[in-house]
Amino acid sequence: MFETDTEGIRQEAATGALPARDRVEQLVRAAHERYRGVDAGSVADYIPALAEADHGWFGICVADTAGGLVEIGDTGVPFSIQSISKAFVYALVCDAFGHERIGELVGVDNTGLPFNSVIALELNGGHPMNPMVNAGAIATTALVAGETADAKWETIARGLARFAGRALEVDDRVFTSESETNSRNQAIARLLQSYGRLDGEPGEIVEVYTRQCSLLVTARDIAIMGATLADGGVNPVTGERVVSEEVSRDTLAVLAANGLYERSGEWLFQIGLPAKSGVSGGIVSIAPGKGAIGTFAPPLDAAGNSVRGERATAYLSRTLGLNLFASAAVGASAVPAPASTPAPDERTV
After folding, report:
1. Catalytic residue among 35, 90, 261, 315
2. Which of 26, 72, 244, 273 has the fewest beta carbons closer than 10 A?
3. Distances in Å between the alpha carbon of 337 and those of 191, 318, 325?
């Protein structure tokens, strides 16, 4: 299970709006103070350029659907977006193809296997199953609008910039480093092609996919990107509609089911939010109608998720009332608790 370290922290109900700004600021500071000294985890090194990250970086940003930002720590430090990009490229493609068609082409079900599994493809007749694993993400990138690889890349770069509310640049060192070590993704692309499930030349599509993963973002950026999905596809900072309400809904549903790969069930059980992580140490978590949390801390657990990011998100999900499954008894319709059970307002879980 995820080590969320939330024992004794009261779970607030998820209904209603975010607390007042001063309360959000207080809790974001508390989360940063509580977890900044956690030393567990290791920086990813299978992509050589990522191994250079500072073990101590730690930033938290909460972006609300009104455009407000509350942040602390290293929220302006750039890092490569990596797998977090999958969620937003999927949203762009879903906006173009629609609910039913993208479900048929890519799928929405969890594989129950690691993100870069080849076995998952073979077991499912070449169907990538969902857009958050590498096979599904590569198939999704291949569907991006554009007749050439360069045109597809321009669509992605413009689309992700609209989500972030600013132009994003590629980290050329990360791109080169990943390109030299992405033979597994190239094999996945060729396997997709062999099953007739790749729209394009495998090498070109993997190059575009690798470039999208190398875009530089910050914890502030991914919080705003997540808040755009929370706000029905409208960027709350720029006011621009990026995708439709239906696409935002579909993207959040896919993230809830698959955003943390084979550990998505544990994440929902512990934290209760659609989310996506990346091996650079970023995590974006979205509370529909409220906003999003962007965290950045490079040391990862064995599953490839940021240790401090997980814990800070779990803390804020509880204290800000973000968990989608948390509710409280309402008015006269509430059933009285048995005498032997603490009243709801006395429990700490």
Report:
1. 261
2. 26
3. 56, 22, 20
Q: What is the pLDDT of residue 106?
A: 83
Give the whole-angstrom CA distance, residue 326 versus residue 67.
25
- Is 152 a catalytic site residue? no
CATH number for 253: 3.40.710.10
Residue 193 forms part of a structural domain: yes
Measured between alpha carbons, how far is 99 from 102 in angstroms, rounded to an integer?
A: 6
What is the number of domains present in the chain? 1
Ordered alpha helix ranges (H), the chain: 21-35, 85-97, 99-105, 119-123, 134-142, 149-164, 172-179, 183-194, 202-213, 219-230, 245-258, 264-270, 307-319
State both tokens at 54: 């500072």
- Is 261 tagged catalytic? yes
Catalytic residue among 106, 279, 284, 307: 279
For the question of residue 46 being annotated catalytic, the response is no
Burial class (CB in 10 A: 0-12, 13-18, 19+), 347: exposed
Residue 98 CB contacts under 8 Å (≥ 6 apart), including other chains: none
What would the pLDDT profile of 273-301 be if each residue is shown by its tens digit?
999 999 999 999 999 999 999 999 999 99
Is residue 4 in a domain? no
pLDDT band at 14 (very low <50, low <70, confident <90, very high): low
Candidates 80, 83, 85, 280; catalytic one: 83
Whether 223 is in a domain gets the answer yes
